Amino acid sequence: MTDSSLTAAAPPQALRGNLGTGDIAFFVISAAAPLTVMAGIAPVAIMSGGIGAPAAYLFAGIALAVFSVGFTTMARNVDAGGAFYAYITRGIGKRTGIASACLAVFAYNALQIGLYGLFATATQATVQSLVGLDIPWPVYAFAAIALVALAGYRNIDFGAKLLGVLLVAETGILALTDAAVVVQGGAHGLELSSFAPTNAVSPGTGSLLAFAFAAFIGFESTAIYRDEARDPKRTIPRATYIAVGFLALFYAFTCWTIVEAVGADQAVQIIAKDPTSVVFNVADQYVGSWAANTMYVLIISSVFAALLAFHNAINRYTFSLAREGILPARLGRTHPKHCSPHTAGAVQTALAVLVVAAFAIAHADPYLQLLIWVNTPGVIGIVLLQALTALAVPLYFKRTAYKESLVRTTVVPAVSAVLMAGALYLMISKIVLLTGASATVNSVLVGCVPVVLVAGYAVAAVVRSKRREAYDNLAQPRGALTPEPPANTASTAS
């Protein structure tokens, strides 16, 4: 709820949609960009940490499935938009909730805007290879910004259909390549040494887990779509588990087939010679040149799908914060026809234009600098938010009367908080593997996250002082779903 001036400026509006479990799952799996991860990141993980990479993706998936238990329990019981910040607010307190909201907006923007560098790089290389045109990368980046803005402007159901088509295409070509490797027996016959304890748990495990956890970023955005879901209390948990389960199994299996395709005994050495081309070479060898060429094209659509998915997530986070009275009320407006948060989308698009233009003017490398430097703080920020959310779950249910099991509300979330803290430590300690940058650059990239969090606490103090009604009603039930029963012990954290 907002103060009277805010309400007068922008009457309450609501997002509307008819998203089912599959639609939401498409959004979050698209944000993870499976083809991009497998073709661009998995070979580097194998090269850096060894052939135990398939097991690392399974470990990360299990850890995130554990996190999802508390996360989805909160989704069923907390009728508030904003996912991370709403749950953290209700569990830890309003100051930390607002600070986490600021961090979420920063992190998702960093992830989305950085991907324009990858889109530009992939498109530039593909066009040059297929038709011989050498077009500067900023042209592709700005074209992508315009297309994402247009798709995000439309009704959410339109975006779901588009992402569904793109996701089926990218996973289909990978699945076809996986099947060809298995049918043909790989390089020297199929075996499971990638999952052997000596390879699954080795000196390189820490670096592998850092890559693996980063590959799942985006799955948690299921809860952001609760206002547009057909039955959010059921569809959000289902979509979350489907996304985590699919990604864990698909990543592990595809990564294993990459190892088998080149031969486990020499996989690290072979991949190290040309890690960025190994998956395309595997497709060429086991399926045919048409498959490799198709994969080059589909990796562009894979990145575009991730850009659109993150754009949608950012817009809904911003929209929710505007409705709460934390951000300007204008950002809480929806389009009269498409029912999309079009004003929030326009602001996100403008920010992307400014950042991409700054890197273009500086003649920065679109992959090594725009992608890596901008994405890294976003990845760290999201994992920190996951750890805070896991911590918030038992704190919330300790004060609230609900008929949920102790395992779901306390035991599993506590284990998850430890696992997420461990993942965060791995990412920071192995940051050089993710960025390849100098110690100074890495310090700045990591340091962005606590700086944003501290700034968020400053924002919380201003909101508490200037917009007390909005502060007091932060992340409270909005009446869209069945209202929560009152707490039976203490009040919501302040």
From TrEMBL:
<keyword id="KW-0812">Transmembrane</keyword>
<feature type="transmembrane region" description="Helical">
    <location>
        <begin position="295"/>
        <end position="314"/>
    </location>
</feature>
<protein>
    <submittedName>
        <fullName>APC family permease</fullName>
    </submittedName>
</protein>
<feature type="transmembrane region" description="Helical">
    <location>
        <begin position="207"/>
        <end position="227"/>
    </location>
</feature>
<feature type="transmembrane region" description="Helical">
    <location>
        <begin position="409"/>
        <end position="428"/>
    </location>
</feature>
<feature type="transmembrane region" description="Helical">
    <location>
        <begin position="440"/>
        <end position="463"/>
    </location>
</feature>
<feature type="transmembrane region" description="Helical">
    <location>
        <begin position="24"/>
        <end position="49"/>
    </location>
</feature>
<keyword id="KW-1133">Transmembrane helix</keyword>
<keyword id="KW-1003">Cell membrane</keyword>
<dbReference type="InterPro" id="IPR002293">
    <property type="entry name" value="AA/rel_permease1"/>
</dbReference>
<feature type="transmembrane region" description="Helical">
    <location>
        <begin position="370"/>
        <end position="397"/>
    </location>
</feature>
<feature type="transmembrane region" description="Helical">
    <location>
        <begin position="96"/>
        <end position="115"/>
    </location>
</feature>
<feature type="region of interest" description="Disordered">
    <location>
        <begin position="474"/>
        <end position="494"/>
    </location>
</feature>
<feature type="transmembrane region" description="Helical">
    <location>
        <begin position="239"/>
        <end position="259"/>
    </location>
</feature>
<feature type="transmembrane region" description="Helical">
    <location>
        <begin position="55"/>
        <end position="75"/>
    </location>
</feature>
<feature type="transmembrane region" description="Helical">
    <location>
        <begin position="343"/>
        <end position="364"/>
    </location>
</feature>
<feature type="transmembrane region" description="Helical">
    <location>
        <begin position="165"/>
        <end position="187"/>
    </location>
</feature>
<dbReference type="Pfam" id="PF13520">
    <property type="entry name" value="AA_permease_2"/>
</dbReference>
<feature type="transmembrane region" description="Helical">
    <location>
        <begin position="135"/>
        <end position="153"/>
    </location>
</feature>
<dbReference type="InterPro" id="IPR050367">
    <property type="entry name" value="APC_superfamily"/>
</dbReference>
<keyword id="KW-0472">Membrane</keyword>
